[in-house]
Amino acid sequence: MFSSKSDIIPNLYYMKTKTFILLAVCYLIANTMVKAQAYIPFTKDGKMWTEAWYGDAPYIHWVDTYTMVEDTFFNGKLYKKVYTNPNQSFYTYDDTTNKKIYVYDFFYSKDSVWYDFSLQVGDTLWLGCTYFILINKSMEYFAGKNRNKLEFCWDIGNPAILTWYEGIGSTRGVFQPFCIMGSSSNLLCYYENNMLLYHDTTISDSCFTLTNINELLPENLFNSYFYSPVLYVKPNKPVSYTLSIYDIFGRKTKEVTAVDNLEIDLSGLHNGLYIYRIESKDIHYSSKLILNQ
Question: Which helix (H) or strand (E) holds 140?
Answer without folding.
Answer: strand 131-142
